Amino acid sequence: MALSRKKKTPSLRSTAPCVRVSVIMPVYNTADYLPAAIESILKQTYRAFELILVDDQSRDRSPEILQNYARRDKRIRLLRNETNLKLSRTLNRAIEAARGEYLVRMDSDDVSLPDRIAKQVAYLDAHPEVGVAGGAMDIIDGQDRLIGVRRYALTDGEIRARLFCYSPFSHPTIILRKAVLLQAGLYDPAYNPAEDYELYFRLGRLAKFGNLADTLLRYRVVPKSMTTGSTRAMEVKTLEIRRRAVKEFGYRMTFFDKIYGSLQQITMRLMPGVWRVWLFNTLRGWIK
User: Fold this and answer.
1) pLDDT by residue (tens digit) across 219-258?
2) What domains, with CATH codes, occur in the chain?
3) DSSP strand pairing (146-150 vs 130-140)
4) pTM, 2 dp
5) What is the per-residue pLDDT across 11-51, written as a single tens digit (0 to 9) for each?
């Protein structure tokens, strides 16, 4: 009698690459700096990621650059908005498409240092109570020249003590737990151009904050940067966000926080935008 042969059990291992991290990069008219930004992600020492590039109807060479990179690297997923959705909605689209448990923010004119993602993944793995974490950054100009350095408070307690004085993270340096973000809710376009600051208050009700002491990013400042061109709009939204944090989210302001907020309102009426940026950057350096 012939012996029966056992059928091979099909492998349950997925043929798709394992993705723990989704890097989300919105793109709008940054052709001059876009290749360096993309390369800085593709050359990360950490490899288990996908790079989600969302073109928000760019009118320069950005779409062509994006398509060239997408053809060359399978880790890239390229999306294009049918209309110009602006930053918040573009980020939300990328988040909804993301497959990773961790989300890494990246702007299309900055440069991530090679071990950025590896350090941030290790940090979240070691601190399961933290829902969002950033790090220090070098500030560069359009010619890649170093013009400044910015560091942030590190621990949850230190970060919360400064929450009403300035944004506790550099937005393009953050890593988030996707599960916590989905629970808190995505970016709210009503708070543009301070949508990230508003999100941090919601995240802070669900998880702890943290920052790495390491420098993670080279942050580019050029004359047309949003932060230099929309100072007043950002300040108005910032004050609105702080009021909402107290009334709706249960945060409490210290006496110093209230004085600081009043000073900001006064200077909005009396000082030019450039002077206000200098003043509050100076004050930020004093607040330890």
Assistant:
1) 999 875 444 446 778 888 999 999 999 999 999 999 988 9
2) 21-228 (3.90.550.10)
3) antiparallel
4) 0.86
5) 333 334 579 999 999 999 999 999 999 999 999 999 999 99
